């Protein structure tokens, strides 16, 4: 498959394996929740395509495209690869699909108003089979039951970790957290009333 050859060239072995696993996890979640399976497969496969390219190359592709970073985005190099990756996939690989663009663009931070495909790729990234952090298995089980719950759990973990390490937290991430939490609470209220 041609995209896998691109990944082989651009990624370390570990990241290549991660990309394959995220693609598989995204397909599983897409089937379960009714997102576009083929788009989930492609976005999952390519979400980290720029991750091993280095900060300079990431910034260059972002700046060449005319994208302006916020102060928080600029302060955190970890956030560059999603933005650069989305641009690379569109402009270099020629996959001109706004849904795939956004799924890659926001896979690290999330945002308010994520599409179903964005949520699928966001959650697939931290529930894929190669992930081995302490609660990985717990979050995997949660993701089978509710995407919103998996988003809240995943972001709670990430934000706590960022704050402990004196790192900035992207407002998009907080927006995604609040929105998913409110959706869960509204759903719980509704179930109580029924
Ligand atoms: Fe990533
Ligand atoms: Fe990833």
Automatic annotation (TrEMBL):
Pfam families the record matches: HD (PF01966)
UniProt keywords, alphabetically: Hydrolase, Iron, Metal-binding, Nucleotide-binding
Entries under CDD domains matching the protein: HDc (cd00077)
EC numbers on record: 3.6.1.41
Cited PROSITE patterns: HD
InterPro entries given in the database record: Diverse_Catalytic_Enzymes, HD/PDEase_dom, HD_domain, HDIG_dom, YqeK
SUPFAM superfamilies: HD-domain/PDEase-like
Chain ranges of the HD domain: 15-130
Residue ranges crossing the lipid bilayer per the database entry: none
One GO MF term: bis(5'-nucleosyl)-tetraphosphatase (symmetrical) activity
Protein name: bis(5'-nucleosyl)-tetraphosphatase (symmetrical)
Species of provenance: Solibaculum intestinale
Protein's gene: yqeK
């Amino acid at each position: 498959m041609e995209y896998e050859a691109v990944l082989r060239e651009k990624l370390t072995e570990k990241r290549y394996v991660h990309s394959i696993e995220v693609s598989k996890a995204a397909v599983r979640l897409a089937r379960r929740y009714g997102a576009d399976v083929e788009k989930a497969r492609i976005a999952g496969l390519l979400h980290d395509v720029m991750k091993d390219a280095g900060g300079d190359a990431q910034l260059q592709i972002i700046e060449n495209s005319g994208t302006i970073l916020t102060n928080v985005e600029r302060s955190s190099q970890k956030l560059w690869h999603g933005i650069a990756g989305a641009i690379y996939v569109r402009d270099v690989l020629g996959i001109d699909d706004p849904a795939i663009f956004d799924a890659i663009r926001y896979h690290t931070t999330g945002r308010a108003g994520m599409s179903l495909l964005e949520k699928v790729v966001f959650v697939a990234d931290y529930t894929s089979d190669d992930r081995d952090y302490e609660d990985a298995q717990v979050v995997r089980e949660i993701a089978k039951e509710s995407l919103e719950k998996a988003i809240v759990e995943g972001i709670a973990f990430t934000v706590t970790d960022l704050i402990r390490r004196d790192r900035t937290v992207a407002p998009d991430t907080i927006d995604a957290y609040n929105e998913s939490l409110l959706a869960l609470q509204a759903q719980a209220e509704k179930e109580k009333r029924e």
